[in-house]
Amino acid sequence: MKVPTSDVPTTVEIPAQSGAIVTLATGHRLTIIDVEGSQVADLFAVSANDADEWLSVPVTRASSWRLFPAVGQSFLSTAYRPLLSFERDDSPGVHDMLEAPCSPEMYRAMAFPGYHPSCSENFRTAAARVDWHPQCVPDPVNFFQRTPVEADGSFTALPALTSPGDSVTLRAETAVHVIVTACSMDLEPINGDRCTPLRLEIGP
């Protein structure tokens, strides 16, 4: 996938329980839109120039001294370099950097019978399009996910507070591949009463 040079905005639709990959040139912006409301967006990113340098949630937490992302901060790579900056938040402002992506192993542990779509599988399908094959699926930034932490250190995944059309906007600090998955979890109510689509808008 080539790094875009066009200044013409691009729109990508992500159906419920699926994912997509886009490539951003330095300085370009990605807006993630919750089309119907209450839908979590798992975000992963990797340098377009080095497949061993991806967005690290632990590095980002440690460097920002924050459990949850906020406007103005950067999302850092495994090499402590900024890949994306959090430029704008047109949502209730509740996001997560604690939860792992849902996976086949998670659904088996929850005793779900048979196959269930997952963010981990959707991540691997999208990452393969740019020949990115990490041994383990990285932890994502979970935009719109509500996981409040209690005084005793426990936390609970609650339904997302977003309304239809709410969004966040990120700016690429370097050429970067970004994967966004519309979270597939429907055994817990983090996506409201059902999983729904997302929309990506990419432009200068």
Mean pLDDT across the residues is 94
Query: What are the segments in which pLDDT stays under 50 over at least 5 consecutive residues?
Result: 1-6
How many β-strands, per DSSP? 10
Which sequence of SSEs, written as H and E, runs from N to C?
EEEEHEEHHEEEE
Largest sheet: 6 strands, antiparallel
Biggest sheet strand line-up: 1-10-3-8-6-5
Q: What count of domains describes the coordinates?
A: 1
Total helix count? 3
What is the beta-strand fraction? Answer: 25-35%
Query: Shape from CA axes?
Result: globular
Helical content stands at 10-25%
Task: Please give the alpha-carbon distance between the first and last residues.
Answer: 18 Å
Structural class: mainly beta
Cα radius of gyration in angstroms: 16 Å
Domain DUF1989: 13-174
Pfam families: DUF1989 (PF09347)
Protein name: Urea carboxylase-associated family protein
Organism: Mycolicibacterium sphagni
